[in-house]
Amino acid sequence: MITKRNMLLGAGLVLAAPAFVHRARAQGMMDGGMSGETMEGSHTSAAGTLQAGEPFRHLPEIDARGGTLRLRAMSGETRFGSGALTPTMGFEGSYLGPTVRVRRGKTVDAMVTNGTGGPVSTHWHGLNVPSNADGGAPQSVIAPDASWRATLPVAQPAATLWYHTHVHGRTAPDQWAGLAGALIVDDDDSDALGLPSTPGLDDFVLILQDKRFDEDGRAVYQPDMMTIMHGYLGDAVLVNGQFAPAARTPEGPVRLRFINASTSAQHRISFPRPATLIGVDQGLLPRPIEIDEATIAPGERIEVVVDMSDGGSAPISVTASLMGGMMMGMMGNDGVQHTLLTLTADPDAPATGRVPERLTADLEPLSAPVAERSFVLQENMGPMQHVRGMMGRGPTMAINDEPYDPDRISFTARIGTVERWTITAEDMAHPFHAHGVKFLIPDPQRPEETGWKDVVAIDGTRDLLVAIEAPTTGDVPFMFHCHILEHEDAGMMGQFLTA
């Protein structure tokens, strides 16, 4: 083993809510303020007494391993704790969506119906399928009361992926409202490892979203010019819509699948017990890596096994903050810290999982890159952005000086080849994501950056070795963009084809 230390559903659903962290405005421009208080136990705010420690609720599952998937996007209301009802959205319910399980080697006939009042889409984030089934392009938008069919050939190894809406200009508010869910790929190889794999017992899906609340305890999403520029940070991080819940586990290994479904915030997760990183965005690592903390940017996923063999309780903490970089350092990269989830060992629950020394085969050397491309992620800071703000218009962001244009294709890549992409972030760090590809980071700076990825935090300039995997079909492109969703909506996105 490698050792590298220090490196729900239904309308009107009631969810355990967080206390407020009263945060100062940094330079009078953005909400934030690193509060030293933890938000454990009972707290009183204008919204009433808020309680941590509610029993953890697992998201329901849909088994699509037989080849059929039906989802319905819905609008509804959700009560976070004792606060006022919040308008929310979800798949098959009022907030978030069920965990969808698919199997390698199967082709899934998927149909998504739009039961909301506005346009939605369903991007299968991390699933490398043809572009007309990917769900990220404008051609895949679903009008109200309409349905969208997609054929999903599942050909990749076991992994924790996810799905979420991807309508340009609406991705951030609609995902914040809850249009997101987990998508798990199973296969024979991972089944044979003996990893913890019983949902609700020793295998937990954890969808993280930070929320901000008004004085009535209603979750609010009201970004202004500056929060669009630098990101929208909530008062607390919820897991599957709950604040600091308590989960009972066996006295043994427990698998935690973390999905960062926040619009802007990165989450640093700290473990009080021995913890092992076993997987990242695109699947299991060759060997487990011991960790005591991990950071995931918006869109990233990790799989971690926590050892509960000693019994007792293990509070896992989270620190949510906006992405770093030079500009954020000048403004104060504020955040909030509290308990995310407490695991409590139950001696009567069977412990059957294990973590083997070997998880997957070592990565084979990639073929030489056939092309090199450079991308500069630009917020376009300057007077014109402020003029647009005073005119009531949002900022315009870009990649390589080009704001998103649905009629422009930036490049065409050859399928089955490897390319070298050099990504540069101006002003602040950005999480970069591309559809239809996977990539390796030649200079991983922490364990979470090893293995095959589809999201990477770019602070400065970084190189990626990109495997062009999926075909584009007809005139439907793949997207590449910043996964700070406010930035994506403001134009930090482009399109490409494969051939």
Describe the structure concisely for a colleague.
The protein has seven helices and 35 strands.
Task: Describe the model.
The protein is mainly β. Helices cover 8% and strands 43% of the residues. It contains 7 helices and 35 strands. The strands form 7 sheets. Strands 1, 16, 17, 18, 19, 20, 21, 22, 23, 24 and 25 form an 11-stranded mixed beta sheet that branches. A hairpin with a 2-residue loop joins strand 21 and strand 22 (283-296). Residues 1-50, 325-332 and 385-392 have low confidence and may be disordered.
What's the overall average pLDDT, rounded?
88
Measured by DSSP, the beta-strand proportion falls in 35-45%
Radius of gyration: 21 Å
Task: Tell me the CATH superfamily of the domain at 2-7 and 18-47 and 194-346.
Answer: Cupredoxins -  blue copper proteins
Count, helices: 7
Terminal-residue CA separation:
40 Å
Apparent shape:
globular
Q: CATH topology of the domain at 2-7 and 18-47 and 194-346, what is it called?
A: Immunoglobulin-like
How much helix, percentage-wise, in residues? Answer: under 10%
Poorly predicted segments = 1-50, 325-332, 385-392
> In the CATH classification, which architecture of the domain at 2-7 and 18-47 and 194-346 applies?
Sandwich
Task: Tell me about the largest β-sheet.
Answer: 11 strands, mixed
The tally of strands reads 35
CATH class of the domain at 2-7 and 18-47 and 194-346: Mainly Beta
What structural category arises from helix and sheet content? Answer: mainly beta
